[in-house]
Amino acid sequence: MRKFLVAVLLLCLSPWVWAVSPYIYGDRVPGGDLGAVMTAVESKLTRAGFQLAGKYTPQGLPGYGVIVVTDRDLLKDIQHLGGATIVGAGIRVGVKSDGTVSYINPDYWYRAYFRKQFRLAEKNVAAVQQRLARALGRGKPFGGEVAAKDLPDYQYMFGMEGFESDKNLLMEHLEFEDAVRTIQENLAKGVGRTAKVYEVIIPERKIAVFGVALNDPKEGEGWWVKVIGPDNIAALPYEIYVVNNRANHLFARYRIALGWPAVGMGTFMRIVEAPGIIRDTLKAVAGEGGAPAER
How far apart are CA 2 and CA 16, in angstroms? Predict the structure, then answer.
C-alpha cells in the first residue's frame, strides 16, 4: 500500500520534478536552398492551423532561419492573462538549410513566461505542443534542462536577473498607442540596424509584442549566437513588449540564459557585452528613454 501511495504521489508531482528542455527536434525535411526549406516547414505549420506571424534569416548566421507562428487559443489565454505574458505570443521554429527543424518546447517557455498563471493556460499549451509534434514531428528534446518547478522564477545563477527585472524597462510613454506607434515607426526605419520580424497587438488589454531582428554586423545577434551555439536558433528573435504605456524587453542575462541554459559561465563571459548592447539597441527602437544600459 505504501509503495502504491508513493507511486501516486510521484505521478502527481512529476511535472514539477522532471527537468524540461527548451527545444525539440522535428523531422528533417529535404535540404537545399534555405528559402525553399523554410517554405516547406511553413506549409506544414499552416496546414496544422497555425497562423504565420513572420519569418527571417538572422544576419551573420548563414543557413539558419526562423519561422514565427501564433495559435488562436493560446492568444485567447494571453489576452485573458494580460501583462507581460504577451511576450509568449510568438511560437518559434528554427530551420537549417540542411533540412534540420527544431521548435520551442511550449512546456518549457510558457512555464517561464506565464509563471504562477501557467495552470490557467496549461490545457492550450499542451494542445499547442501536440499540434507542433503532429505537424513537425516529435524528436529528441535538446538545449539543456531546467527543473519545471524552477522555470517560473528562473535565474541562470543566484543574484542574476529574472522575468520581472527592473532592467527590463526601455521607455515609458504617455499612452499605449504612443509606445506601439514609436516602435512600429522605428522598426520601419531600421533604427539601430533592426527590422520587424512579427508583431502581435491586443489593444483592448493594452499589450503588444514585436519580434526584432538585430542586424548590425558587429553588434547584432549574429556574433553572440555564434559564440553560444546557433543550434538553439529557435530562441530568436529578441522581443520588445508593451504593457500599458511601458515598452520593455527581457534583460539578456535572463533572456539569453533561458534560451541557452546549458551554456557554461566561461562561454557566457565571452558575450559579456551583449546584454548592454541589446538593451541600448532596443531602447533606441522604443524611443531612447530611460537610464543608460548596464554592462
Answer: 22
**From the centroid of its chain, how far is CA 134?**
21
pLDDT in tens, 112-130: 999 999 999 999 999 999 9
Alpha carbon distance 96, 284 (integer Å): 31
Kindly state the cell numbers that stand for 32: 537545399
CA atoms of 130 and 285, how far apart (whole Å) = 36
Predicted TM-score (pTM) of the model is 0.91
Domain 20-150+163-286 of CATH type 3.30.450.30: no
CA distance 209 to 61: 24
> DSSP code of 245?
T
**Residue (of 123, 121, 111) closest to 151 by Cα position:** 111
Confidence of residue 18 (pLDDT cuts 50, 70, 90): confident
Average pLDDT (221-243) is 97
Q: Per the omega criterion (within 30 degrees of 0), is the bond before 230 cis?
A: no
Domain ranges of the chain: 20-150+163-286
- Quick one: CA torsion of 139, 153, 91, 220, rounded to 10 degrees? -100
Mean pLDDT for the stretch of residues 247-253: 97
C-alpha cell at 227: 559564440
228 CB burial (10 A radius; 0-12, 13-18, 19+) = buried
